Amino acid sequence: MACPSWATLRVSLVAYDSHYGNTLTIKTPYSAQSSHSMPPVSLSTLRKGARGTVADVRDDAQTLGDEAQSTVSRRLLELGFIPGEAFEVIAEIWPGGDPMAVRLGNTLFALRRREAGAVLVSVEGG
Amino acid sequence: MSGPAPALDALRLALVGVPNCGKTALFNRLTGSRQKVANYAGVTVERKEGSFVGPSRGERYRLLDLPGAYSLTPTTLDEAITRDCLLGRLAGESAPERVICVVDATNLRLNLRLVLELRDLGVPMIVALNMSDLAHSRGFGLDRERLERELGVPVVETVAIRDGGERALLERLESLPTLAPRPPTEWRESSFEQIQQTQREVRRILHAAGYREPARNRSLQRVDGLVMHPIAGPLILAALLFFVFQAVFSWAAVPMELVDAGVNWLGAQLHAALPSGLLNSLLVDGVIAGAGSVLVFLPQIMILFFFILVLEDSGYLPRAAYLLDRMMGSVGLSGRAFIPLLSSFACAVPGIMATRTIPNVRDRLATIMIAPLMTCSARLPVYALIIAAFIPRQRVGAFNLQGLVLFTLYVAGIVSAMAVAYALKRTALRSTYHPLLLELPEYRWPDPRNLMLGLWERLKIFLQRVGTIILALMIVLWFLSSFPAPPDGATGPAIQYSFAGSIGRALEHVFAPIGFNWQISLALVPGLAAREVAVGALGTVYSLSATGDDVAATLVPMIAGTWSLATALSLLAWYVFAPQCLSTLVVVKRETNSWRYPLLMAGYLFALAYVAAFITYRVASAVLS
Amino acid sequence: MWQAVVVGLIVLAAAIYVAWALLPAALRLRLARHLAATARRAGGPTWLVRFADATEGSALRRLGGCSDCSAVQAAPTPPKSRDKT
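The joint structure predicted for all components is written out below.
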């Protein structure tokens, strides 16, 4: 019931798909040009099943806690939400889809829509 | 001081790494039982230090297990401590001479950034590629030597959970030259641009070292699809918890009977062997009946801890936190609060200490205030005793009725915790929005060795508790219950004339409205030191009340015969709320640095307990008569 | 009669232990230090001195306030940093 829908063939020039059989290679940083013509959108607008690559992380100055030195955006960057990194929204809570679970590269993160708002992404597919 | 002081020339090492990289397992592997836990000076952050000896040269090392940190820019006190310790800024601690940077070989992209951050600061280090066995078996590819060249620091593979898995690390450590002590390092927060730069460098290095990730594990993905499904997920969570409580009752039934029989046998033997008199009574009514009554619940507690340890090890808990985030959010808490609250199921004390991972002060305080409501394992003997005496051992559909009632009690604890949190967050502890950003680690089969070690630790602690404070309290209680001796010609059991009897009768005035008889009222007093002691106290008190030779009468039929159901239910309601644990209050005082909060906590909990017991008792009496 | 003596000793030991365990941590530590210092100064029998030292060590360890979890098996930290807590 929760398997990603394979009905739409996800084709992309981003080299994360299994061109090479069972192994994937990490693409080199400076070839991370996506061919998507759609402008980047905020991660917070995406629903379950959406995939793509990260385009940017805005600094919205939302603090992570009372230690106050760290903001959400900084922590997102430190965790790997950098331009070119592939992501997929794999789950969300009902109703409202908040919080959401996003796979970034090989790691799963849970975050709320509000935190996700700082991340701009390019969505793949139509 | 206790224990030999470590040799002054022992090399000081520190373990650092992001959370979930297996750092603690490596620490345990290296130091074994030679560990000491304390606090960093002036703060309530746990300081774990251990020692070990190098295999070939016999050199001594001291190892500090620093709190996990994603970066040197801290978001919590834990992370601040890690940074300060590494930079040599911590009062009373000199910087470690060398740092072992533990990384998860199956998640290098996340882990390597911290390594670079530390390397660029000039911290002398050696990288431990942990879980390398998992990496190999899952098909990760990496050229370790190339990675070492690219990073410019030694890199070794470790398998923290396997015997000998630390060998390579030790050998490499010994081959490294000793270093001169460093002055405190300069550090400034990196800018966003610098972070992105470092991340690009990470990816460049990984590419150069031939890092290859295998395709994702489909079956685990499917598991997550279910576990994190918006509808199936919460159902699975509820079912899991329900199953645990059922197991606690049904699996423990036979072992408990064995322990009970053993305790009774011992009591009977002693009673027969010793000449009747004071010593006989002390040993049989005080020690055996008292401490023995608590010992009987050992199997249930072990089973509960088994499940808690399995859940902790498996990686399921952060997913549960994700599922519960909405519910927690509705009462003003973050889903992150779930993990410390779940630890509270074992004992509120580590649960309260675990709230250090909650960055927001008000959230943390709210979580601390409700932690005691999460039914701790020490309540279990009390619940189990009353359930055994009053709830018939029958099945309702596929479920065990006793397990069902226990589940209900736990749910009552959780629901009341949420209600209190809601009230607190609306009034005193209002706070602004708190973000959620949680890593959900890969599922792991719990390591049987760690599991056994954990259970063994718990067993030792429980037995120690019974053998020291509980035993001592029972002896004192016995004394208070046996003296002064009844005047000549007195009728009724001797205990009524003793100190304890008088105390009980005095307290009874306070507790009569909620249906507690004097025995219960009395048992609540030593129960303040440790909740389970109430069971032991009841055991002693009723044993001493037994007139004639029916010493063999065990507690369960005794209270089943003398208490009313309304009283039993009222006591259950009392126990859901009552702050019967001085230790919890002490820890709250330490964690919040003031007496105000523990006193407030005790106050509101007692009030809640009294009201709940009152309502239960009145309603039950009306309904049942 | 001997029964009464044995019982009395056991009860006394238990009562002292309970009082000790329930004392506030700081007070317990001070008492333990005082005890250890006195034992050493008075030059009493070695077992007494060792007992006093062990008590002090255990008082330092039990600053956790709860005997129930592994976080309490603490090492005594050096006295200078102890004074901050």
